[in-house]
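pasting for ref
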Amino acid sequence: MLTNVDNKLEEILDFIGSIYFQTWLGAISAHFLSLYSKDFKGTIPFLKKIIPYKSDTFYYRVDLIILPLIGTLIACMVIEPVNLKTSFFAGISWSGTLIALLTNNNNNNSNDKDGDN
């Protein structure tokens, strides 16, 4: 029984030390920092279109899961990090890029609706 627990603990520690998890930490950090921007709406406008009539809490929670995962996947595929430093900064940089793109896109969409463009 103890060896089974030791094996599970070792698997958990291996996962935490993996490049994917460390890249996800960078991505989730960037996502948390994006919450300070009033203009950034993340994936919420898209989610409201494909899954309408849910609470705001639902949309924020799903956004918290989706956006960092997208940042992690893109960072791992494009940058191919090999250690803690490169994986963490890959997560931050690609999530930051997604945040910048979505913020710009969200601002353009709101301006189009207001008739400013």
